[in-house]
């Protein structure tokens, strides 16, 4: 009996993996049904359905990048402090002196890559007509995930607290000032007043809510940090679960009828 | 010494490696042609091209005493010509023409040889351009590197789509099954899918680590709310929206139009009634939806990001790719509102206005009177055009889609067209606002 067989035959191994090693056809089916991580997949697929030239693999890559961002992000959270005093210095230290500071480069480049791959995933799904019935609703979930990916990237952009960060967020969030009715420089905001007092001012409009202040400052840093690390990832995780579940329920990877 | 040298020994050496990589790519290509039994003449041409690239790489990689006198660089005359053509009008016109050519000539440019030549030309153009200092400054900015990569990646996948679609359309015309239908047999997910997922994950991890080691993530000076950089740019993926600010006020460019884009994307499956083209690549069976989507994605979304990233400099002025970003570059802006065109230039009257002590109602009426032409134009655009289109060019759609779906589609198309329309009006007539009511922050 070889060592491998001995280990696979032990009680510990068998208690962890609920199936024998996938060496024969039967067990290759069983492994897909009994393993938590694998059961996202069906047991068998059409050969053309998984061809790279057909799927481009962009949805899978986007999900993988999301995992990379989550792991590197958690590691960065152990080090980085979102305060005016420390934010920039911590990033500087990550770049210059900290062991495994490369996590920050991977996190940053992975974020850029994720924005691109999520666009390409949408591009492919459109071009193969995979949004057509019965997959209409999953396309809508996908659009929401696209928006949330952009928001994740946008909120993360502020955290290094350098010139690039603060001014990109200033330019981006200045738009909110002009939201119709809800921004203090938006059309219709003047109508919303009570007894001569404006309800929508620069201390109560959409931009103020987004930034937690009249300008990009410490409150914004804290707000974006929580959005970036907790709030948006929670929503994204839920939507990803729904997205994958619907892919399976709506008939798997799309195929010619 | 010139503080901004076009050519340094480091640049020349890096270009040498680039040419070597290009040579290797073409060697693989030539070998594949050889295996596919291409003609001797074709093989000879490709082999000599590879040799030329190898020699070029060697010249670059060999030590050269005076880098500033290195013989291979982008000639100044070409640089001046390209910079001279650089303005938003020509950028948009050229990208629209390329877009039309991409669709009309799809059977020609998707041929592997043609596509390969286009790729080679693009890489050679990039490489030669890298000999320019100002070009390097823009393209080499850390945050811009992914955008350069994105250009090539989007190009590649667009080619992949069109070549698959052309092949499938040919098969459909002959009554044969599509490529996707052909490989109909089922395979087990273990090992066929899980292994390729595993390989993909390992490759991606390697790419990310190498990318992180080779290229440092951007980090500028510490944030300062008093030192405004010029230009101040939004994150790169929002630069298309920032570019729209040139033509529309923030409430349109930053709020209404992005919302319309999102609503439009989400509405897409519910307004596309065409049952064909589900699960395979095709162009002929879905012409309208594909042309509309591609126009939104390539010239408008990707194109405007490219424009905003590489061609907009200080004060959001337009700069050629080889041009120095001069803060003092002046662009004369004397844009005129439609109401001024109508009252002052057309009727030779002052703009209607109410006295300072007039009541709110009188003031409102005066504003409406002043802007009535623009308001009427916008209302006609949004209210009259949909029924007009339903009776003419979109008649088939209207019949098939029913009232609600048709109205959603018509409005989405009108909003998408609003951007190019405003651009053309600005360039042709210096039109600033169609409706200009700054009193209410309501400018269109």
List the helices and strands and how they pair.
The complex is a heterodimer of chains A (257) and B (444).
Chain A lengths: L2 H7 L1 H6 L8 H10 L9 E3 L5 H4 L2 H20 L9 H10 L5 H26 L8 H23 L4 H12 L18 E2 L2 E2 L7 H6 L6 H32 L8
Antiparallel strand pairs in A: 2-3
Helix pairs in contact in A: 5-7, 7-8, 8-9, 8-11
Chain B lengths: L8 H27 L4 H22 L14 H9 L3 H17 L1 H4 L2 H18 L3 H7 L5 H29 L5 H4 L3 E3 H26 L24 H6 L5 H22 L15 H25 L26 H9 L13 H11 L1 H20 L3 H7 L1 H27 L6 E2 L4 E2 L1
Antiparallel strand pairs in B: 2-3
Describe the overall structure:
The complex is a heterodimer of chains A (257) and B (444). Chain A has helices at residues 3-9, 11-16, 25-34, 52-55, 58-77, 87-96, 102-127, 136-158, 163-174, 206-211, 218-249, and strands spanning 44-46, 193-194, 197-198. Chain A is built from eleven helices and three strands, in the order αααβααααααββαα. Chain A has two domains: 1-41, no CATH class; 58-249, Cytochrome Bc1 Complex, Chain C (Up-down Bundle), CATH 1.20.810. In chain A, helix 7 packs antiparallel against helix 8 (136-158). Chain A is mostly helical and 257 residues long. The radius of gyration of chain A is 24 Å and the shape is globular. The model of chain A has no long low-confidence stretch (mean pLDDT 91). Chain B is mostly helical. Chain B has helices spanning 9-35, 40-61, 76-84, 88-104, 106-109, 112-129, 133-139, 145-173, 179-182, 189-214, 239-244, 250-271, 287-311, 338-346, 360-370, 372-391, 395-401, 403-429; strands at residues 186-188, 436-437, 442-443. The model of chain B has no long low-confidence stretch (mean pLDDT 91). The interface between A and B is large, with 101 and 91 residues.
């Amino acid at each position: 009996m070889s060592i491998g067989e001995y280990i696979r035959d032990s009680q510990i191994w068998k208690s962890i993996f609920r199936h024998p090693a996938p060496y024969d056809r039967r067990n290759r089916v069983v492994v897909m049904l009994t393993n938590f991580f694998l059961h996202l997949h069906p047991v068998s697929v059409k050969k053309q359905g998984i061809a790279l030239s057909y799927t481009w693999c962009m949805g899978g890559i986007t999900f993988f990048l999301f995992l990379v961002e989550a792991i590197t992000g958690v590691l960065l959270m152990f080090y980085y402090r979102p305060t005016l005093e420390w934010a920039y210095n911590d990033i500087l230290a990550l770049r210059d002196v900290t062991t495994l500071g490369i996590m920050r480069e991977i996190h940053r480049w992975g974020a850029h890559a994720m924005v691109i791959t999520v666009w390409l995933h949408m591009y492919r799904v459109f071009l193969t007509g995979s949004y057509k019935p019965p997959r209409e609703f999953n396309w809508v979930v996908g659009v929401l995930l696209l928006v949330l990916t952009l928001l994740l990237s946008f909120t993360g952009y502020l955290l290094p607290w350098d010139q690039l960060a603060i001014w990109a967020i200033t330019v981006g969030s200045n738009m909110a000032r002009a939201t119709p009715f809800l921004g203090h420089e938006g059309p219709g905001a003047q109508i919303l007043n009570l007894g001569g007092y404006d309800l929508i001012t620069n201390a109560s409009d959409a931009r103020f809510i987004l930034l937690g202040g009249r300008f990009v400052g410490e409150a914004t840093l804290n707000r974006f940090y929580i959005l970036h690390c907790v709030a948006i990832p929670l929503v994204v995780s839920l939507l990803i679960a729904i997205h994958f579940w619907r892919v399976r329920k709506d008939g798997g990877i799309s195929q010619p009828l | 010494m010139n503080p901004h040298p076009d050519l340094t020994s480091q640049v020349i050496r890096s270009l040498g490696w680039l040419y070597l990589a290009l040579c290797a790519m073409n060697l693989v290509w030539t070998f594949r042609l050889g295996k596919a039994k291409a003609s001797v003449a074709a093989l000879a041409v490709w082999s000599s091209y590879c040799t030329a690239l190898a020699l070029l790489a060697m010249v670059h990689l060999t030590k050269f005493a005076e880098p500033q006198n290195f013989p291979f660089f982008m000639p100044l005359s070409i640089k001046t010509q390209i910079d001279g053509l650089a303005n938003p009008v020509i950028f948009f016109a050229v990208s629209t023409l390329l877009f039309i050519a991409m669709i009309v000539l799809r059977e020609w440019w998707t041929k592997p040889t043609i596509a390969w030549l286009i790729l080679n030309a693009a890489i050679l153009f990039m490489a030669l351009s890298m000999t320019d200092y100002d070009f390097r400054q823009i393209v080499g900015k850390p945050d811009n590197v992914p955008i350069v990569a994105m250009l090539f990646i989007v190009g590649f996948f667009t080619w992949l789509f069109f070549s698959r679609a052309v092949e499938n359309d040919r098969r459909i015309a002959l009554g044969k099954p599509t490529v996707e239908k052909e490989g109909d047999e089922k395979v087990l997910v273990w090992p066929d899918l899980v292994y390729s997922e595993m390989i993909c994950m390992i490759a991606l991890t390697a790419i990310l680590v190498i990318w992180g080691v080779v290229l440092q993530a951007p980090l500028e000076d510490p944030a300062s709310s008093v030192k405004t950089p010029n230009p101040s740019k939004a994150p790169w993926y929002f630069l298309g929206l920032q570019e729209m600010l040139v033509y529309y006020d923030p409430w349109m460019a930053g709020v209404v139009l992005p919302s319309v884009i999102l609503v439009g994307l989400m509405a897409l499956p519910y307004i596309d009634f065409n049952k064909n083209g589900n699960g395979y690549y095709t162009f002929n069976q879905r012409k309208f939806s594909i042309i509309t989507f591609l126009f939104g994605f390539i010239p408008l979304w990707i194109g405007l990001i490219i424009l905003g990233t590489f061609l907009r400099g200080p004060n959001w002025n337009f700069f050629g790719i080889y041009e120095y970003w001069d803060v003092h570059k002046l662009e004369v802006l004397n844009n005129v509102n439609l109401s001024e065109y109508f009252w002052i230039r057309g009727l030779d009257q002052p703009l209607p206005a109410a006295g300072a002590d007039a009541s709110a109602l009188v003031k409102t009426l005066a504003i409406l009177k002043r802007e009535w032409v623009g308001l009427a134009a916008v209302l006609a655009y949004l209210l009259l055009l949909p029924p007009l289109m339903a009776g003419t060019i979109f008649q088939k759609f209207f019949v098939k889609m029913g009232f609600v779906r048709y109205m959603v589609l018509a409005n989405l198309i009108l909003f998408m067209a609003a951007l190019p329309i405003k651009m053309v009006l600005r360039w042709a007539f210096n039109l600033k606002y169609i409706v200009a009511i700054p009193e209410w922050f309501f400018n269109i």
